[in-house]
């Protein structure tokens, strides 16, 4: 059993989930979904990520908690509570049913970090369909390849991305029957209109732990992209790894900067924090140092998950230049990537003081095999 962990209630930040590494390591056995999340009285034997990430919290009296704060390009934030996210994802699931999408079919997204992304992902799972996110910076050919491999049935995107990146290869995608456009436009169903008038509850698909939930694609840099399949039961690993590796708790305000088109951006940018019951921060814009400082401070982020590659493009400050010059000429992680050795410096460089944050560095994105964390 996963010993030494209790994240079912709010805890003080000074009390880590992984209090005794050796004890947990020696006694660890992967728990079942029912042992991790509890038994669903309404659907014995069933397990669905969409339910566990939203309705589970509502049923436990935590519906008024903020689930997602999504920051738009112009800086305005949209707030979704767990209750609202449960309702909107149910509306999306009902809309998918009306559009003829059946359980097991593939629903792709080509979106940035916008509220519709989270609603679509959760609603897809509630419908029993399979969610597959695409990197919004992809061109038409990478998009075509992935949607052909997975036999995409539906796509949620914007009119601009559809015109530029999907329409040129639409003739090569015979399985793609439904286009849903966030913000409306020509060529598809308006996202808001599709949800309007739908009931705010739905019949959640009776998925089992081994039913397919997500298809993540590899980068394709070494050949044809490969689809990695995640089942609903993988939520156990998502929740426990976030609790252990990120020390994530229900009272945390969590920001993962990864794009949802890659595995980190979905597994730890959508699924894990919502399973735990944290508040998830997302930003539609890409890296901008001043904007990120403002986000960290204004949103009072307590756990920040980012990559050394995000900091590296910053203009070097005198302090950073001195720090790099002092690095020993060795092959260790700190020497190759000083940002990973002390990720707090990204925040400290601005005003000489550290924010009270838990940091996690995505070393895979930096081509490294190691990570660094720091806590005040």
Q: How would you portray this structure in words?
A:
This protein has 376 residues and is α/β, with parallel strands linked by helices. The protein has 2 domains: 21-283, 3-Layer(aba) Sandwich (Rossmann fold); 308-346 and 364-376, no CATH class. The protein has 16 helices and 13 strands. It has helices at residues 21-27, 33-37, 49-59, 82-98, 115-127, 140-150, 159-166, 191-195, 235-245, 263-276, 289-298, 308-311, 318-325, 333-336, 338-341, 345-351; strands spanning 66-71, 77-81, 106-110, 130-134, 152-157, 178-181, 189-190, 212-217, 227-231, 253-256, 279-283, 303-306, 358-361. The strands form 3 sheets. The protein has a 6-stranded mixed beta sheet. It has a 5-stranded parallel beta sheet with strand order 4-3-5-6-7, with helices on both faces. A hairpin with a 5-residue loop joins strand 1 and strand 2. Helix 3 (49-59) packs across helix 5 (115-127). It starts with 20 loop residues before the first helix and ends in a 15-residue tail after the last strand. Residues 327-356 and 361-376 have low confidence and may be disordered.
